[in-house]
Amino acid sequence: MFTSDEWTLNKLSKEPKGKEAAKVVLMPSFWNSVVYILKVMAPLVKVLRLVDGEKKPAMGYIYEAMDKAKETIIMFFNSNESKYKDVFAIIDKRWNCQLHKPLHAAAHFLNPEFFYDNTDLEFDFEVTNGLFECI
Ligand SMILES: *[C@@H]1O[C@H](CO)[C@@H](O)[C@H](O)[C@H]1NC(C)=O
To answer: How far apart are CA 95 and CA 99, in angstroms?
Structure first.
């Protein structure tokens, strides 16, 4: 849009705010930030769709979905922790209080789909601690 004739011939392109907007959008760092945001947000939006969706009761699947989302984010950043640790601090803070992690850990443990699929589930202490906390 900002390189089109339509824009350059428009009077807004000569105004300070128009010039500033064009400058920002044409900076490589702007697009690097967009890519960064997409790498973080795409997996999280998937979890939100599950939580908000009507397809199936989400309770027993949220813990697994959050685990998968975090794994996907790690993969998107090639396991370079310095690139995602600040974001994970924010996610973990929300996940631990607002999203009631222990409740979802208990639901994960009690979901037959995961319980019978993973024989080591009883040794996943984050999951079993969540279960005990709820009990
Ligand atoms: C990890 O990311 C940081 C910050 O972007 C960068 O400086 C560093 O070289 C990366 N490390 C590896 C092993 O790629």
So the answer is: 5
Tell me the whole-structure pTM to 2 decimals.
Answer: 0.78
Amino acid at 22: A
Please report, for residues 1, 28, 55, 93, 135, the alpha-carbon distance to residue 18 in angstroms, rounded to integers and kept in the order given.
12, 18, 44, 38, 59
Query: How many CB atoms are located within 10 Å of the residue 123 CB?
Result: 9
Answer whether residue 45 is part of any domain.
yes
Domain that holds residue 55: 40-100
> To the nearest whole percent, how much of the chain has pLDDT over 90?
61
Q: Count of domains in the chain? A: 1
User: Pocket residues for ligand 1 (CB within 6 Å)?
Assistant: 80, 82-83
In this predicted model, what pLDDT tens digit does every residue of 52-78 receive, in sequence order?
887 777 888 888 999 999 999 999 999
Rounded to the nearest angstrom, the distance between the alpha carbon of 82 and the centre of ligand 1 is 7
